[in-house]
Amino acid sequence: MANFTFDVDADGIALITWDMPGRSMNVITVAAIEELAGLVEKVATDAAIKGAVIASGKDTFSGGADLTMLEGLTGAFKAMAKEQGEVAAAKLLFDESRKLSLLYRRIETCGKPFVAALNGTAMGGAFELALACHRRIAADNPKTRLGLPEIKVGLFPGAGGTQRVARMIAPGDALQMMLKGDQLKVDRARAMKLIDDVVPADQLIGKAKEWAKANPKAKAPWDAEGFRLPGGPVYSKGGMMTFPAANAIYRRETYDNYPAARALLQVVYEGLQLPMDTALRVESRYFAKILRSPEAAAMIRSLFVSMQELNKGARRPRDVPPTKLARVGIVGAGFMGAGIAQVSAAAGLDVVLIDRDQATAAAGKDGLNKRLSERVLKGRMKAEERDALLARITPSADYASLKDCSLVIEAVFEDRKVKADVIKKIEAVIGGDAILASNTSTLPITSLAAEFKDPARFIGIHFFSPVDRMMLTEIILGKKTGDKALAVALDFVRAIRKTPIVVNDSRGFYANRCVLNYIQEGHLMLLEGIPAAMIENTARMAGMPVGPLSLNDETALDLGLKIVRAAEADLGPQAINAGQKKLLETMVEKLGRLGRKNGKGFYDYPAGKPKRLWPGLAELLPKTLTREQVEALDVEELKQRFLVVQAVEAARTFEEHVVTDVREADVGSILGFGFAPFSGGTLSYIDMMGTRKFVALCNAFATKYGPRFMPPKLLVEMAEHDETFYQRFAPDRKKAA
């Protein structure tokens, strides 16, 4: 055995310790499943063994399944479908994908007690393993997280989790937990009765063995005579209050874009009407079906496989030694700079926070203190955690304080002259090996690097707001940026637990180019006379987290106007839409509607009340559609316009070598601007549709709505050969560290 150790004590209680070599965390692999199955059979068939405890030899229990295993299954399905037909391939997928479910059921029904001893986090298939045991005992560890997050990668729990959770707690609570992919702390999991006991860490194994010894005939509740569902039968008053409402909430929240969420509802609804073994078979059938869906394939690839590879350093120069970051400097103590200071300090780094005077720098830290204190009051953070974080941040007006920093990030106002002045001040004090990064969302890095004596040590690190919540950072390479600067930037991003994408210098880089197209499309729909509510709702129906008008309010209308004017000044009037410019000028300069920051934009923001679309918006527009014209609008076409206009821009950035890795285009689009996660990202969206169909749609939209939809030459060429991005530009996975 490579992944487990097996010891039996004098009382006949076996200790199965999961400790995979060469990994920081245990994961479920084909080899791990086979080894565990052998050990379960040994426990079940050896009369001298009275029960078993499953524990971990690592700091946590397990992160769940290695989803590349499932990628391999879908690949095997496609290969067999070509060779032997889809029926044979479907049987293979069903049989292989339910092996874990059958193993867990064997644990549950083998006639001997199994106890899960959870010393730390157990997620996904690992938590399903715990649920299949007859007792779940957890160490008292505040860092532990327990849950079934499969929905976040386009799947649902497929090893019995849907059936066990829905038999342990009320189905409404079970559905909410699984549909949200909640990660539970130990105390909440115990309150929900998903774990049974919480004990000091040094007593964990002993308590688990005691229970196994004391309960030789343990059974799962649903295998005992007289078991009753905690929420009552499906066709009862309680059931009828749960499932119709759950279906309505699912439709409201997902617009039916996520097959796995729909299947999860069906599995729980159908499974609770059946005996356990039949219910598990139903779960396995739905799981195999969802595993074949293009949405699951795309989400697993982008949100698990690709994201892991990027987080582990897929784009890091291999010949540059790891950076020992201890102290970073941040110049600019505004909302963005304070946010960068927050995530840096939370990662254990010492931070020097610089601004034009001591009072302004201190105000940045004070504002952060206020925001963190609100978290403490809401129970989302402990006071000692806040205090420790703030203690690592030193506000100052003295640039000389930056001299010992190996990385300095300027996060001052988005003005070329202001940034140039700050760069010179930083340059005068930092060491010859220090890296200087600019947090800019619009200004080209190459031109900013010209202000620095050594452009090889200058790089862009574009954070997204709010910094503490947004998981993406966009690392921008100037024309002269060196490998060391890239390595340091990636090491820093890894330290603060963000996901990096590396892009080449251009106006707007990658994320902003795509998302500005999305916002512009909302503006242009307004000018076509389409009602604002319809614009916002169809955008969300398409899979975007918020509508374009709402997003523009969040990013500020005056910033949008500045971007339009800057593009016009640099590239000429043909580079912008005159109607959009006029709309923004009216909103910002004539009406003073700047967005959420001053309480009025496309929406009104009344104090203490939900935001609402501004009633006066219709009066500004040059065109108003009649009710009959509105009713005749093609909702599906409106949805496609929002996604196509972003995806075609992503393809342009790829053709222009702004983005050079398909993984970064897809992961960046989901994490950076919320591009329809069910699609797997902008380029996966094109692949899912097929390049031929996508190019045809682009051409139709270009004829109807304008050249912004024209497909680039690369896409046209790919369509001619019926190629996909992941075929033509398959990532080199050997580069991942």
List the helices and strands and how they pair.
Layout: E1 4-8, E2 13-18, H1 30-45, E3 51-56, H2 68-84, H3 86-97, H4 99-109, E4 114-118, E5 122-123, H5 125-132, E6 135-139, E7 146-147, H6 161-168, H7 171-180, E8 183-184, H8 186-191, E9 197-199, H9 204-214, H10 237-254, H11 259-271, H12 276-291, H13 294-311, E10 327-331, H14 335-346, E11 350-354, H15 358-377, H16 383-391, E12 393-396, E13 407-410, H17 416-427, E14 435-438, H18 445-449, E15 458-463, E16 472-477, H19 483-495, E17 499-504, H20 511-527, H21 532-541, H22 548-555, H23 557-571, H24 578-590, E18 603-604, E19 612-613, H25 617-620, H26 627-631, H27 635-655, H28 662-673, H29 682-689, H30 691-705, H31 713-720, H32 725-728
Parallel strand pairs: 2-3, 3-4, 4-6, 5-7, 6-9, 10-11, 10-13, 11-12, 13-14, 14-15, 16-17
Antiparallel strand pairs: 1-2, 7-8, 15-16, 18-19
